[in-house]
Write a structure and sequence with these properties.
This protein is an alpha/beta fold. The protein has helices at residues 9-39, 59-66, 79-87, 156-170, 205-224; strands spanning 47-52, 92-100, 104-111, 114-118, 125-128, 133-135, 148-150, 177-182, 188-192, 197-201, 233-237, 245-248. The chain has a 9-stranded mixed β-sheet with strand order 6-5-4-7-8-9-10-11-12, covered by helices on one side. Strands 1-3-2 form a 3-stranded mixed β-sheet, with helices on one face. Residues 254-261 have low confidence and may be disordered.
Length: 261
């Protein structure tokens, strides 16, 4: 059997040329298809379905705010950019966006749930259930009398966690924390709905909670000695290692100096 003869050079050149031509045709065809897809009005975004939590923003309002910011059609629109556009709307915490062929987008929303105000009294920032700070119209908050939390930037989660730990401690004496603040030096202080100012001091959450629990558990016994209730507390300092100092409304600890005549 004769061995196979090598292909002549001109045959090899023809095969290479044919391969290149076929590849060029395939690329041209693909480009034409892509151009048709991009330009075809059938794939323009025709509808955006909004689902999930829409308490503070109606689906129609959301679509009206977001649609002008979208660029491209069903195939080319950026889902990440669409997600960011929805999350830029007040009260929207998270948005999940997916395509629905041939020309729809479906968006699942999660809203912020405000549990506290954040920062100085002049600020309109809020804290959600995750301890995240967000900005929104406080007039849209369903719950009245939200507590105000204060602290260094980035510490909102820690302050909310401390508030949640301390809040139930005051309930047995019918008091509530109206404001809780963490200073830049790590010291805690609280203002109650009775107007009382409580210096909680520094330390871990467990240490602050234990001092506060000791204070609340003995408060009724202390105030009853002076025929007062728990809401008569004007201020208290829990930073002492073996006890606390308390000031009661209408109770003095020193006799007033006689006035000179």
């Amino acid at each position: 059997m004769n061995p196979a003869l090598p292909q002549p050079f001109d045959v090899k050149l023809m095969n290479i040329t044919a391969t290149v031509l076929f590849a060029a045709c395939a690329v041209t065809l693909l480009a034409a298809v892509l151009w048709w897809v991009v330009r075809n009005p059938a794939f323009a975004i025709g509808a955006i379905t909004v689902q999930g939590e829409v308490t503070h923003n109606s689906p129609a309002t959301l679509r009206a705010n977001v649609a002008p910011r979208l660029a491209g059609n069903f195939f080319t629109v950026s889902l990440q950019a669409t997600r960011e556009a929805f999350q830029a709307v007040p009260w929207v915490r998270n948005a999940v966006v997916r395509r629905e062929f041939p020309n729809r987008l479906r968006v699942q929303l999660e809203e912020h749930h405000a549990v506290a105000l954040w920062g100085p009294d002049s600020d309109v920032k809020l804290v959600n259930t995750f301890g995240e700070v967000f900005e929104a119209n406080t007039g849209d908050v369903e719950q009245d009398n939200l507590p105000r939390l204060k602290g260094p930037e980035g510490q909102s989660t820690q302050v909310l966690q401390m508030y949640r730990a301390l809040k139930p401690l005051f309930e047995p004496v019918d008091l509530a924390i109206e404001q809780l603040a963490l200073s830049g030096h790590g010291s805690w202080n609280a203002e109650l709905d009775s107007g009382a100012l409580i210096e909680l001091g520094r330390g871990s959450e467990q240490e602050v909670v234990e001092r506060t629990r000791r204070f609340v558990q003995t408060l009724t016994q202390v105030t009853s000695r002076y025929q007062r209730r728990a809401d008569a507390v004007v201020s208290a300092d829990l930073r002492h290692g073996d006890g606390y100092a308390v000031r009661l409304r209408g109770v003095t600890t020193a006799a007033e100096a006689p006035q000179k005549k």
